[in-house]
Amino acid sequence: MGQKPTYYELQQKIKELEKEAFERKLMEQTLHFAQFTIDRSADAAFWMGPDARFVYVNEAACRILGYTRDELIKMTIHDIDPDFTQEVWPDHWAEVKRKGSFVIESHHRTKDGRIFPVEISANYLEFGGKEYNCAFARDISERKQIEEAMQLSRREWVSTFDAMSDWVSLIDLKYRILRSNRSGEKFVGVPLGEMIGQTCYNLVHGMEEPIPECPLHKMLQTHQREVADLHVQEGNRWLRITVDPVKDEDGNLVKAVHIVRDITGLKKMEDERLKSMKLESVGILAGGIAHDFNNLLSVIMGNISLAEDDLKPEVGVSEYLKEAEKASFRAQELTKQLITFSQGGLPIKKIGPIGDLLKESTKFVLSDSNVKYDFLIPHDLWLIDFDLDQMKHVVRNLIVNAVESMPDGGSIEIKAENFSISSDTVVKGLVLSEGEYVKISIKDQGVGIPAEHLSLIFDPYFSTKEMGPEKGMGLGLATAYSIINKHNGHIIVESEEGVGTTFTIYLPVYEKEIEEIKPVETIQPEKPAIRTGRILLMDDEKMIRDLVEQMLNRFGYDVELAKDGAEAIELYKKATDSGKTYDVVILDLTVKGGIGGKGAVKRLLEIDPQVKAVVSSGYSNDPVMTDFRRYGFIGALPKPYTMKALLEALDSV
Fold it and tell me: Domains in the chain, start-ordered, CATH in brackets?
């Protein structure tokens, strides 16, 4: 038999048992309190052993998953979490023991099969000699929806940000790019990844420090939006740079939003608008000068005709008059250019292909030249609506310029093609609306045009050639520009010194029927009218009236004069009422401040449908002059004219 414990030993044992009972009771109370707390948690709580079986679940777990507590106690984590398969669980358990606690995201499946995302806080616990994984699971469906919405919003914003044609970037106060959209790659030719961290002045201008005009430099001083239009040599571009400050909650400047827009096309449109306004202003002036100059030339040439008629052939003075007359004819050609350049030279259009005109005009100019030519003109070229004579002037002028740029010979390429302009079409220097055009290019191998002259070559009286009546007057390209502009087209030039020059013309394709002007119906007399030799002359210039009166009197005509259409109508009415009608009425087309020939002839036809009216004008290519019968006239007399031309016009009617 063993030795009985002593009283002291019994006392010690009793104390140990009491302590153990106290600690167990305390632990039970703590466990009860913990269970009480966990049961009231909004998050699902699971205790499971190494075998993944649940030993405890709280009320939230039952409510969220849709099971009773008894149902869950009979289940494992594999039954409610599709991510924790039997193959995955051992690794997870080992990680819980190793780390002690950590947070992961997973999914739970409810009793009705719905799967939702959860955030699990896993904790390793030893209790009563056993190991547990005490896990808390929180439903993060709403958070995931918010995150997905934020990610979608971010993707949409990034897509919108990258879809912008403007280059938008975020820049720090040291000019370094922090963020940028994809358009920046197009502006500076640098991949987006390489762009970050570089300075804007180095990327845009290739400089090592900010330029004085830099709007960001100004914004750092003003703390307000700054905008500047800057020219970039590379690519010959104009950029509009807008810089907005970014401030923190305390109002301190921390960053800047940097927006760059390519306004090269806008600048070109502004330049074209200013050029058109300038040419229009000069054109109005030129038209007025040409009109008055033609009247003066009419007086000069008419008086020369009278003087020649008075002089005998053997008198030497007649030779001087011939030279004066030749000079007057040259002056007449100059006024034709001025009129074509001015508003008075509106094109008289006809529909047709322009290929033959290009070939004929080129061959005409190059007939006695050492310059070769090459045509690239398709047979299916679209029809356009153009003035034949004016377009000949354009092509011949461009060919002449090309020949003069190649004194030692060379080759000219004349190309025409069908060309469509859409919103996606980008053509350097082109400012035209969307539509279909015929594109004409005239390319030479000449000396080229200096860069500083390119913006001036279409200006009136600008020329790098020697000026003079036999050399040139600097109106060729200005007139060509004006003609193309009046055809609703556009002409641009590209040139490189030592390489050559290319003029490119865009003319709109014919799209609709031209509104025909119905000719005024005149009643033809059954028998030829008896000529009385009476002529009514209407002109607003007294010098012309006096001169023509002398010419006609010399040949036996009886002449009456009128200073405007109203007076001419009154005289004609009186003559008709008295039975002394006029054989011919000569009407000036344009009258300052009064009724001109076009308006007067309508009234005369009402008075006398048999009236014989001849229209006279310095605007020789005016529609009334070129198609006079439609307006009720039976003849046309372009100014200036000689006595011989006057009599021939009268004989023809």
Answer: 28-143 (3.30.450.20), 164-262 (3.30.450.20), 288-326+517-653 (3.40.50.2300), 350-508 (3.30.565.10)
